[in-house]
Design a protein that fits this description.
The chain contains 24 helices and 28 strands. The protein is α+β, with helices and mostly antiparallel strands and 748 residues long.
């Protein structure tokens, strides 16, 4: 047992006296069996108020929950002292990023709780996890003198132990051990394996029924993993063997079937990730439905260390975690997987999820809910829903939604609301959206109650509001809505379905009468700690890439700025001073798009108005020579005025094709763009970004970061200019083309 000597105690006491802003995690380091946990127990004995949390087998989220619970129960008026043991063994699976999440994110970030200081000491085995180091406030225990293994084993038995160590769960059923042995080329029958386990109690432990086996210690397990590591090919053979063993079974949850099926439910995603075949597994809804949320998230972290690919099923799972979806049952998890698949147009995946036979507490009937992690507008996107009501007509009730599209709110507001009616049973639009000047409440159609219209009474309906504490139902006798992310804000029960609305649109669900809905709870606004994964860089949209290659630029611009918005010039209309071939080609083939009041950009050149040559600002004959010297032109020109941008004239340099803002005496960095195609591609992408209804702050942030990266790729000089930097960093421009698409994201 290691002793805490006077020097160590002095170091610990010095750490305790540090100001809060300087105190980091106190680390107890050392190899396996060096006594790190015993060291922490000795600290606890000296500090009776300290709490020891054993992280072995716990997810990082579970550790975070324990830390919050212990701090909440600790005596008031003093710091919360938490001792984290076995951080290197965190995670339900053995190949896991959970130790890193605890060591690098949770432990150093958990410094205060409800206004109280939190002091954290933690143990780490540097062979398994590499936490942030601080030599001044850490102890490093020496390696033990005795060997970690007390028994010699023959070569054949060594391969069996190596196979067992490759398992992803600590307790392994004997049939799974057989599959592990077969995959590694060391076939063994169950009696032989059982006999070996019984003969080596110093290495292995058997459960009472002799149906599963485990290593005697975690240190021994990892020692065998290092001794006989598995490659991707061996992992692939095991994944195939597990799939063959479980897909022949009956439909229904694997966790309720035999030991191999139960193991596969929790471990197959990890083995597939290590084999490099996880995407194929995720693409099959019948398989995806079987995997618990924790197993999937740990597998994603292993499979995609550089980020989940754009638009993939992995990205769909990533954004479900970002939204805070933390289901309490497998059925609830599959219900959200089905909802996400349906919302993103993955109908085959959605059908497979339903075919898996996992009972769902609720099911999405139809969806106009925007999927996360997608750049730009989507066909059929309903946009944000601010208000919800119901109308009655001859053919039955219709759901009414409204969004505030008021513009110019800072100076001259023009109050407008986009209103639309939907069929509650099919989700089909009943009529085209219309702009009105009154909200539902102003028009005596509040979201919180029914209305009689045209002599027809609305059938019994129920309204619900989603708050930080869960759903608040107007009529408690109807089945409650499912637990939802906080992007879902309102609900309407009509025709046996809940129509749910919020920042990403609307969708309808049917709730099983027997399902227990927990109306007083809701999902957290974000993960307890950082998400397991992050998005990989998004690819430049194909339409933008094609336009920059000269394919379809005009059509792409007119998609957003309006049909016939581009006005090409004939060859004879181009001034002789315009020498740049790329600029001439753009003006002839694409034409300048007519734009007004977007980013304070006004393009006024029309097909019947040739470009007008102007002098570089401050260079006219009537300008004093001293001032002309301070306003040197970037080239010999000539310069042509295209319109205005950000309260300055937008000038085209005829000799180079570059664009400039007339900012003489103002900005020292007047570059607008290196060419017309590059400039308008950046404007078009930004327009798409501004008009997109991103349901979450993280979703919006990911799109903004990728937009900035695309603009850097398109025109790095312009993207780094003062004006474009201001735009891409998110300055809140108010103009009449902006309908506040992402209004209200500040609370997410």
């Amino acid at each position: 047992m290691p002793e805490i000597n006077a020097q160590d105690w002095a170091r610990i006491d010095a750490w305790r006296e540090l100001p809060t802003r300087d105190r980091r995690v106190f680390s107890v380091l050392g190899p396996a069996q060096s006594g790190k946990t015993t060291y922490l127990l000795a600290v606890r004995d000296r500090w009776p108020s300290a709490t020891l949390i054993d992280c072995r087998g716990l997810s990082a989220d579970a550790v975070a929950t324990r830390m919050r619970e212990e701090c909440g129960a600790a005596p008031a008026g003093r710091p919360c002292v938490l001792l984290l043991a076995n951080v290197q063994y965190a995670g339900e699976a053995l190949t896991s990023t959970e130790p890193t999440r605890v060591a690098e994110i949770l432990a150093p970030g958990f410094r205060r709780f409800e206004g109280r200081e939190v002091w954290v000491m933690a143990e780490y085995d540097l062979d398994l996890v590499a936490p942030p180091r601080n030599a001044e406030y850490e102890v490093n225990l020496p390696a033990p003198t005795m060997a970690t293994e007390s028994a010699q084993v023959e070569a054949a038995n060594a391969s069996q132990l190596g196979a067992l160590a490759a398992a992803e769960l600590r307790q392994v059923p004997l049939p799974v051990w057989q599959l592990l042995c077969s995959a590694s080329g060391a076939p063994s029958d169950a009696p032989t394996l059982l006999h070996f386990a019984e003969e080596h109690p110093d290495l292995l432990t058997l459960d009472k029924g002799h149906s599963s086996v485990a290593f005697r210690s975690e240190a021994l397990l990892h020692a065998w993993r290092r001794r006989q590591p598995w490659d991707a090919a061996t992992q692939s053979r095991l994944a195939e063997a597990l799939l063959s063993a479980v897909t022949d079974g009956k439909p229904g949850p694997w966790t309720e079937q035999g030991p191999v099926s139960r193991y596969a439910a929790h471990a197959l995603p990890l083995h597939a990730a290590l084999a490099g075949v996880l995407p194929q597994l995720l693409a099959d809804g019948r398989l995806l439905a079987q995997f618990p949320v924790g197993a999937l998230r740990e597998a994603l972290a292993l499979a995609h260390p550089d980020g989940v690919p754009y638009g993939s099923v992995a990205a769909m799972l990533h954004y479900l975690e970002i939204q805070g979806v933390s289901p309490s049952s497998q059925g609830e998890w599959v219900a959200w997987l089905h909802h996400a698949a349906l919302s993103s147009g993955r109908t085959e995946l959605a059908d497979g999820l339903l075919a898996a036979g996992v009972p769902l507490p609720w099911r999405t009937a139809w969806s106009h809910w925007r999927p996360s992690g997608i750049f730009g507008r989507i066909e059929g996107d309903a946009g944000r829903v601010d208000e919800l009501g119901v109308l009655a007509g001859k053919s039955g009730p219709t759901v009414v939604t409204a969004r505030d599209v008021t513009t110019g709110k800072i100076a001259h507001p023009k109050y407008k609301y986009l209103r639309q009616e939907w069929s509650p049973t099919t989700g089909d639009p009943v009529a085209a959206p219309v702009e009105v000047h009154a909200s539902l409440s102003d028009d005596h159609l509040p979201w919180s109650g029914p209305r009689r219209s045209e002599g027809h009474e609305v059938p019994d309906v129920a309204f619900a509001e989603h708050t930080d504490d869960g759903w608040k139902l107007e009529t408690p006798t109807v089945p409650g809505p499912p637990t939802c992310p906080q992007a879902v804000t309102r609900g309407l029960y009509v025709d046996g379905h809940w129509v749910l609305t919020g920042t990403a649109g609307l969708f309808a669900v049917s709730v099983e009468p027997s399902a227990s809905t927990t109306q007083e709870t809701t999902y957290p606004k974000r993960p307890l700690i950082a998400a397991h994964t992050r998005p990989a860089p998004w690819p430049l949209p194909p339409s933008a890439a094609n336009a920059l290659r000269g394919e379809g630029m005009r059509g792409w611009l007119e998609e957003t700025f309006g049909a016939a918005a581009c006005h090409p010039l004939a060859e004879e209309q181009l001034p002789h001073g315009l020498k740049d071939p790329a600029a001439r080609d753009f003006l002839i083939r694409t034409g300048l798009p007519e734009i007004s009041d977007f980013l304070h950009l006004g393009i006024t050149a029309r097909g019947d108005s040739p470009l007008v040559e102007v002098a570089w600002p401050g260079q006219g004959r009537d300008v004093p020579r001293q001032r002309r010297a301070k306003c040197e032109a970037p080239s010999s020109g000539p310069f042509y005025e295209l319109g205005t941008w950000m309260y300055s004239r937008l000038l085209l340099d005829g000799s180079t094709g570059r664009l400039f803002r007339d900012t003489t005496g103002g900005s020292p960095d007047p570059v607008a763009g290196s060419s017309l195609p590059q400039f308008f591609a950046m404007v078009r992408l930004y327009d798409e970004f501004r008009r997109t209804h991103f349901p979450y702050v993280t979703d919006h942030k990911d799109a903004q970061e990728n937009l900035a990266r695309w603009c850097e790729q398109i025109d790095g000089t312009a993207a780094r200019s003062e004006t474009w930097t201001l735009i891409l960093e998110g300055y809140d421009f108010e103009d009449s083309t902006w309908d506040l698409a992402s209004y209200g994201l500040e609370w997410i």
